[in-house]
Amino acid sequence: MRQPLVAGNWKMNGSRESIKALLDGIKAGIGAVNKAEVAVCAPYVYLADVQQQLNGSNVSWGAQNLSTEASGAFTGEISADMIKDFSCKYVIVGHSERRSLYGETDEIVAHKFEVARNAGLVPILCVGELLEEREKGITEEVVNRQLDAVINRVGIAALADGVIAYEPVWAIGTGKTATPDQAQETHAAIRQKLASMDAGVAEKVQILYGGSMNAGNAAELIGMADIDGGLIGGASLKSDDFLTIGKAAG
Ligand code: 13P
After folding, report:
1. Is 177:211 a contact under the CB 8 Å cutoff?
2. What is the pLDDT of residues 166-206, one digit of tens each?
3. Rounded to 5, what percent of the chain is helix, strand, coil?
4. CA-CA distance, 90 to 162, in Å (whole number)?
5. Is the CB of 64 under 6 A from ligand 1?
6. 128 CB near ligand 1 (under 6 Å)
7. What is the DSSP code string of 70-126?
8. Other C-beta atoms within 10 Å of 95: how many?
9. Looking at beta carbons, which pairs linking 151-158 to residues 24 or more positions away fall under 8 Å?
10. Tens digits of per-residue pLDDT, 20-63?
């Protein structure tokens, strides 16, 4: 049985002060989350604070991006080992904002997945289609292409060491959530694709949904057979809402 995972992606939000209050709230309520693992993915500069505040708690943490490079003259970049240095468990790779705003190609994302995994981080691989791609009926094709880039680079077995997040781009930050049926359809297609290559990997890999998931719609989404949790943006910035999602996941 796959353990549900509810991960917050804070994106470029917060301050030392607001993050302290947010984590205090999460820690105070985490006891009511029974089944799900709860994690937060913080901006790099706050990872030391996050580590200090979450050490010894039941909440995991991670980063939102990493460099493909190990070290050297790459001004402004952060390596996998640096992220590991702050005891991060997770790192998000290939978020649609990285793909669309910072030019990350499928190949770059696959490289980042590989580097994260080799460093012992758990990559949360984001995939998902644009609105026009959904309207053209090519959602599965787009998601398959994004997955294949990673599988071709690291092999299907390596996917078992990561998490997949299906985030339809049109649902991110828009308040327009995929319906549970729409999301389940794509999640099932992803799992079937994996199963056609390796049944064990398909059974093991958690597939999270992301895109305007909130305290009101989480239970229904996570209740679907192939939705193993959520990657939460806006609603992860409020401890009550975030914990409600955690509880909705069991
Ligand atoms: P929202 O929950 O704000 O729509 O963001 C989703 C997301 O991009 C998580 O990575």
Report:
1. yes
2. 999 999 999 999 999 999 999 999 999 999 999 999 999 99
3. 50, 15, 35
4. 9
5. no
6. no
7. SSSS-TT---HHHHHTTT--EEEES-HHHHHHS---HHHHHHHHHHHHHTT-EEEEE
8. 27
9. 151/197, 152/110, 153/107, 153/110, 153/111, 153/113, 153/114, 154/110, 154/113, 154/114, 154/117, 156/194, 156/197, 156/198, 156/201, 157/198, 157/201, 158/114, 158/117
10. 999 999 999 999 999 999 999 999 999 999 999 999 999 999 99
Whole-angstrom distance, CA of residue 51 vs CA of residue 232: 20
Which atom from ligand 1 is nearest to the alpha carbon of 165? 10
Of all protein residues, the one whose alpha carbon is nearest to atom 2 of ligand 1 is 233
Annotation says 187 is catalytic? no
Give the active site residue among 111, 129, 167, 187: 167
Rounded to the nearest angstrom, the distance between the alpha carbon of 204 and the centre of ligand 1 is 24
Our answer to whether residue 167 is catalytic in this structure is yes
- Whether the CB-CB separation of 2 and 206 falls below 8 Å is answered with yes
Q: pTM for the full model?
A: 0.98
Under a CB-based contact definition with an 8 Å cutoff, are residues 212 and 173 in contact?
A: yes
For 226, the token pair is: 């192939």
Residue 231, SS3 per DSSP: strand
Catalytic residue among 95, 97, 111, 187: 95
* CB of 114 sitting under 6 A from ligand 1: no
